[in-house]
Automatic annotation (TrEMBL):
Molecular function GO terms recorded: catalytic activity
Source organism of the structure: Thermococcus litoralis (strain ATCC 51850 / DSM 5473 / JCM 8560 / NS-C)
Protein name: Prenyltransferase alpha-alpha toroid domain-containing protein
Keywords: Repeat
Sequence intervals crossing the membrane: none
InterPro entries: Prenyltrans, Terpenoid_cyclase/PrenylTrfase, UCP016175_prenyltrans-rel
Superkingdom as given in the UniProt entry: Archaea
Domain Prenyltransferase alpha-alpha toroid: 9-69, 130-192, 203-272
Length: 281
């Protein structure tokens, strides 16, 4: 059970934190008192159990919850998360049924990269690049191959966000740079080398833009993942590990910064995954 991680963080309290927030419908909600289960929290619960190589409790209920969440009114990011979650749980056939919903909102041939956009992981309203990232994650999870024309159109769209050695809307950011290079890699293109991640590295964590403070968990997660993708290592592995360990709250979950923050499933997964990656460099 994630024995490597168990030497660095309290995994028992992580699991209790997740399990206490599982609801009867098979979904999860990080605010345990609310009976409003959602795709985002359920997706990250699935990812945490998968990372720790533990069978998710009452898996059939969670499969049913995610499958029933595949609805036209959902944002494309949420639909993509549900598809990937179903694939992780071994329900690829059900996951593939969500493709028609994706293509109602994501039409690269027509130059429409997530119609309506809707909700986001990061910014309240999704950027089109973020939507592309999640759609390509979903495609990868169910082994869906895009056509050569779709591939070319999506690549051109991604490159429209290039800002120097990184990617962003007004300037290169760690989040969007990782989303871009992951997406290019998922499409089968060579991963472009970039110094952006190293420019955002501080002695214990990473920042969203170069030469700024403080570090936060999300850019740390994306930078560590990005460096693995381009086959480079962080400079300060041990300080990064200490930074992440310090983010675990008494309830077992993780917050986003040293200064403040409540636990949520997203940050808890990111902390565990980034730590797992750092321990394998």
């Amino acid at each position: 059970m994630g024995s490597k991680l168990g030497n660095y963080v309290d995994l028992r309290s992580v699991l209790k934190y997740i399990e206490d927030r599982r609801h009867e419908d098979g979904g999860y909600c990080f605010v345990s008192l609310l009976n409003e289960t959602n795709i985002n929290d359920t997706y990250y619960a699935v990812k945490i159990y998968d990372l720790l190589d533990i069978e998710i409790p009452e898996k059939e209920k969670t499969v049913e919850f995610l499958y029933n969440s595949l609805k036209p009114q959902q944002a494309v990011v949420a639909i993509a998360m549900a598809i990937e979650g179903l694939a992780i749980l071994g329900a690829k056939d059900l996951a593939k049924e969500g493709l028609s919903l994706v293509f109602e909102k994501y039409k690269p041939i027509e130059g429409k990269f997530a119609v309506g956009l809707g909700g986001s992981e990061e910014f309240g309203t999704a950027t089109p690049l973020e939507a592309t990232y999640w759609v390509l994650r979903a495609f990868k999870a169910i082994d869906y191959k895009v056509s050569s024309e779709e591939r070319r159109k999506i690549k051109g769209f991604i490159e429209s966000f290039r800002k120097g050695e990184g990617y962003g809307v007004t300037q290169a950011t760690t989040t969007m740079t990782y989303q871009a290079i992951f997406s290019l890699n998922a499409l089968g293109y060579p991963v472009p080398k970039t110094r952006h991640f190293h420019r955002c590295e501080v002695y214990g964590g990473f920042t969203e833009v170069p030469y700024s403070l403080p570090p936060y968990l999300e850019p740390t997660f994306y930078a560590v993942r990005g460096l693995r993708l381009i086959n480079e290592k962080p400079r300060y592995i041990e300080p990064h590990i200490r930074f992440i360990r310090a983010l675990q709250n008494p309830n077992g979950g993780f917050r986003r910064s040293l200064e403040m923050g409540i636990s949520n499933f997203q940050n808890t997964y990111r902390a565990l995954k980034a730590l797992d990656d750092l321990l394998s460099f």
